[in-house]
Amino acid sequence: MNPFRLETCLYDNERSDRRIQVFDRGENRELRFGNHITQSARSHSAPERLVLDYTRAMASGMVFRPEAAEILHVGLGAGSIPAFLHRFFPRLRQRVVEVDPEVIQVAYRFFDLPRSGRLRVTIGDGADFLLATQERYDMIWLDAFHAEGAAPQMSSPTVLALARERLRPGGWLLDNVWGSDRAALRRTVQTVGGLFPDLWSLSVRVESNVILIAGNPRQPLDRAVLRERAYVLEQTVPLEFSHWVERLKNGRLPPE
């Protein structure tokens, strides 16, 4: 049976540059960009939990800076990760930069993105924002995707260098890279590794999302410290931090 037959389309708008769709499929509500790739998903029965593997992997990056006060997100999608962090890290303030105003409208209308002073959403190009802003952040999360995969400009040397400049001392960069293009992935790893002394990678699945986590911590981090932080976070946050910590690779790519 084709699972896509068992779905209901709630929203479908096609433009010259992008098609935005919202479907209810089984337990989940999904955001898509004109194909069967689920960009974001929200559970009807457990909306507070992250559905997609890549969102859980990326959110596990909080073990690197659990006390973060300010996070910048480039790319919104349905807002799954910002909404999750807003709920379970109540002292955290977030700024989201999203280039497409329609994506923002869909996130509020269909995915219950919180309207909160702790979660500000700005319409704009992420690279332009990084160039213009004078703000500094504890973490910067690059998660800008289109129908074909990750937006390539967000992994350019120029943008990655700007992101480093916009981090506070001890800050961390999380870059969600599409792993199917191994040559592009290796170029990004080389660029990030040249900008930051500490580099970790987290592969979600073969030829899928690879999360690069890079920083210049005040004190070197090892897996034992990350395990301790994961255990503490799991007492209050519904996310398998320990699972993802064990899958982290320090300074290396996932195997071919």
Question: Can you tell me about this structure?
Answer:
With 256 residues, the chain is an alpha/beta fold. The protein contains 8 helices and 14 strands. The protein has helices at residues 53-59, 80-88, 101-111, 126-132, 157-165, 182-195, 223-233, 241-247; strands at 7-14, 19-25, 28-32, 38-43, 70-74, 93-98, 119-123, 137-142, 145-146, 149-150, 167-178, 198-203, 209-215, 249-250. Strand 9 and strand 10 (149-150) form a beta hairpin. The chain is globular, with a radius of gyration of 17 Å. 42% of the residues are buried.
Task: Lay out the secondary structure.
Blueprint: E1 7-14, E2 19-25, E3 28-32, E4 38-43, H1 53-59, E5 70-74, H2 80-88, E6 93-98, H3 101-111, E7 119-123, H4 126-132, E8 137-142, E9 145-146, E10 149-150, H5 157-165, E11 167-178, H6 182-195, E12 198-203, E13 209-215, H7 223-233, H8 241-247, E14 249-250
Helix pairs in contact: 1-2, 5-6, 7-8
